Request: fold
Amino acid sequence: MVTPGLDLDGVAETFAASTDFTVGIEEEYAVLDAATLDMVPRFEELRDAAAAGDPLLAGSIAGELISSEIEIRSGRGEDFADAVVRQRAMRERLFRLAGDRGIALGSTGTHPWADYRKQRNIDTEHYRRVVEGLQYVARRNNTFSLHVHVGVRGIDRAVRVCDRLRPVLPVLLAVSASSPFLEEQDTGLHSVRSQIFTKSFPRCGIPDCFGSWAAYRKYIEFLVGTHSIVEHTQVWWSIRPHFSFGTVEVRICDAQATAAESERLAALIVACVAQAARDDDDGLPLVAPERRFVEENLWRAIRFGLDGRFIDLERAEEEPAAATVERLLAWCAPARAELRLDAEPAGPNGAQRQRALHHAGASLRETYAATVAESRETYAHPERKQEIRIP
Reply:
């Protein structure tokens, strides 16, 4: 079947040339007025300033849906450590560039009080298409995430890795949750970002289990043939094979308030992808619960994060979220050891810390200011290895 605008015949070749466990990190930040911490449409200013004075940074930043958002990309690291070194260097350059212009950068899944109706969409062909196609769903999506690309050799193997990781996605979301506030209120959720984006965009969230490239390709051809999509990135699943890079891309996580949290979470994602690939190589049985069962845990991650309880889908029994995280760490321990990854979560996550500070009497603006400050102290200064904690 002919698929206009998509070279599906070249996907197998791209993945055949891929190298296992190369890593790319993508971090999205809110662009803020440094004095008020309001979101401001100044991405283009940062982009143009980088192009004029810092070509290396210019090649690593990208626009997202709104002009008050900016993404920093490590590019391909030969391993996780290489990707982190690259990302730290680009973060430092970006935060310095922004600070020189009176711009702060926020790193939580949502902005606590910004009005989405006042945000200007970025003017690119891709995002014009997204807004035209999705309308309110796209305009409402003022959210910030961490994406991690992991090289996986072989497209059938990459599809099977995605299949194996479906039940893991809610756990990764819970670990990452950092968006309890929206529209000047405590939403009662731990990741309202996921409710806005993951639960609203089409072809998003927990994917089906495909089993093979042939089945996945058939699905993409169906979408193209029915004029549902024109590019493969319009399949917004929380995990997907990325056709251009030969990677498995994990997209489930909220942006992280500190650099250490972002790096540990990225390491955990790499370990999960690597362990799934090793399990596939070893011929271990695939555990592939139906999507409706995984969705139960996804909702629990959105609503309760690490404060809640997950369902052990094989036993059909509840357990504390901490126990689920421990089982995940035990499962991927061989990959963590093989790749020398420091991937264990440390202390309360972003949502827990923000809510604790707010419940202690801080206003939403004071809470967000403290979070922006810890982002600046850790992302902008890679030499500072300590992790700032909101008291």
